[in-house]
Amino acid sequence: MCGILAVLGCTDDSQAKRFIFSQFGYRLRHRGPDWSGIYQHEDNYLAHERLAIVDPDSGDQPLFNEDKTIVVTVNGEIYNHEELRKDLKNHKFRTGSDCDVISHLYEEHGENFVDMLDGVFSFVLLDTKHNSFMVARDAIGVTSLYIGWGLDGSVWISSEMKGLHEDCEHFEVFPPGHLYSSKSGRFKQWYNPPWYNESVPSTPYEPLAVRRAFEDAVTKRLMSDVPFGVLLSGGLDSSLVVSITARHLAGTKAAKRWGSQLHSFCVGLEGSPDVKAGKEVADYLGTVHHEFHFTVQDGIDAIEDVIYHVETYDVTTIRASTPMFLMSRKIKSLGVKMVLSGEGSDEIFGGYLYFHKAPNKQEFHQETCRKIKALHKYDCLRANKATSAFGLEVRIPFLDKEFINTVMSLDPESKMIKPEEGRIEKWVLRRAFDDEERPYLPKHILYRQKEQFSDGVGYSWIDGLKAHAAENVNDKMMSNAAHIFPHNTPLTKEAYYYRMIFERFFPQNSARLTVPGGATVACSTAKAVEWDANWSNNMDPSGRAAIGVHLSDYDGNSKVAVSSPSPKTVEDTPMMMGQGVVIQT
């Protein structure tokens, strides 16, 4: 992911100079170490820190239309740029960059072109002819983006909060699926799919339709002119991404340039569930596998850097960001600039373990809608910023627009977890890739129970964090927490510890308002906590807080996994399936 920074309508010359200084003063240099570009037109400044993935030779930014009256700085990838170029035959492109289509689409369609882009992006477009600008962010918020306002009336845009938090009177998260136009001075929602209003859909489940849609989502993300790899935890989601990538890599342009041998990467404590499962999947698929081990102390030592880069005090995000942050540094040192990852599946399929308690299909579906809408505050934030800290780009096939539309149009009855019918969480995804004739994965991996990333790297990781926090936050500090932190008051010593660090880096009230709060168990929304009265006594984002569901839950209950025969092919599969279904004994 690149870094973008823009100040628009800046009448304060000293602020403009600070902007230029911040651009070349490394606020966002970590995101794009390959090139720094800056453009000024009157009182507007656009800057870009480039991580070159597509067309590294000529795609430096800002980008322009033919007569340079339209200027664009963009972070992201446009996967359908070749198709869009065909529809822009009368235009001349200056580069081979996938993002070069944006200025020309604006010339043709004005501000009404954003939904034509198939990809992830944040961009600022300056129209010098009409002295106007627009800003847009991708549908789900895979790319990070913030907007702020200066006292002089200027509008600030930055990929990260640290790019503007010292210069704006107020700033906030730029909402995903929206654009901001200087012509109206308001936000406009450009992404409004049928599932967004949370009404219950009714499309019957077709396993092969889900399979094809996800394979398309993965293969379009193999667009790269530089070496890339895949993150592999050994869980269902990342393992499917690796399996599909391995199947389709040989025919890509990237393979012709860099070879068809796929590299996979895993991180965890020595002997952790993810490390063991990741190696098994890598051996099965024949990838060149890289295992990175860290100790609890390694993670604790990185916490301050993680909070600075990821820009949050949310407990579960920090827990999961730290191993990813450490792994990203190792991956970049090997010369890899882009990785595919498995985030997003649990939100669209209802894969978190607390979904076992969903009372009906309406509640199940509405919770998935809430989770997708909040992804930019949690997993997307983590994946984007933990990797970008070292100039590494992450791509997330599960959050492909078309794939989300396919899955979210399904009758949620088919997604519901029903142990009595042999249906484990994410059953519809598992079934779609259960192919006896040409297996994508070993059966026990295909039906491995969900592990949240912060759990899968090793259960002692979270336990170690809690112990470290307890050494730094005493009971007296906790008794005054509501007075010190009246907004999103930390309820645990671990949360208090992270909050202290965050406030040191980002002391502004606007900064603390960018971080979500509220009750949660096993990563649920506050609404879903109501599904089980017992959860209110064990409010923790770890999957082990799903008492009565997780094999190693905090309650210490004994559980076994039951399996039933699997059908030979997807086409012959009846409306039930089961391996590794968790039941309590």
Low-pLDDT runs? 557-585
Return the structural class. alpha+beta
Give the neighbour order of strands across the main sheet: 2-3-1-9-8-10
**Share of residues in helices:** 25-40%
Enzyme class: ligase
GO cellular component, one term: cytosol
Protein name: Asparagine synthetase [glutamine-hydrolyzing]
Organism: Brassica carinata
What does this structure look like?
This protein is α+β, with helices and mostly antiparallel strands. Helices cover 34% and strands 16% of the residues. The protein is globular, with a radius of gyration of 23 Å.
Quick structural gist:
The protein has 585 residues and is of the alpha+beta class.
List the helices and strands and how they pair.
Elements: E1 3-8, H1 13-24, E2 35-41, E3 44-50, E4 63-64, E5 70-78, H2 81-86, H3 101-109, E6 119-127, E7 132-137, E8 146-149, E9 155-158, E10 170-173, E11 178-181, E12 186-189, H4 207-220, E13 228-231, H5 236-248, H6 253-258, E14 263-268, H7 273-285, E15 288-293, H8 296-310, H9 315-333, E16 338-340, H10 345-349, H11 361-373, H12 379-388, E17 393-395, H13 401-408, H14 427-432, H15 443-446, H16 453-456, H17 459-472, H18 475-479, H19 481-484, H20 493-505, H21 509-513, E18 559-562, E19 581-584
Parallel strand pairs: 13-14, 13-16, 14-15, 16-17
Antiparallel strand pairs: 1-3, 1-9, 2-3, 4-5, 5-6, 6-7, 7-11, 8-9, 8-10, 11-12, 18-19
Structural key phrases:
single chain; 585 residues; alpha+beta; 6-stranded antiparallel β-sheet; 21 helices; disordered C terminus; EC 6.3.5.4; ATP binding; Asn_synth_AEB
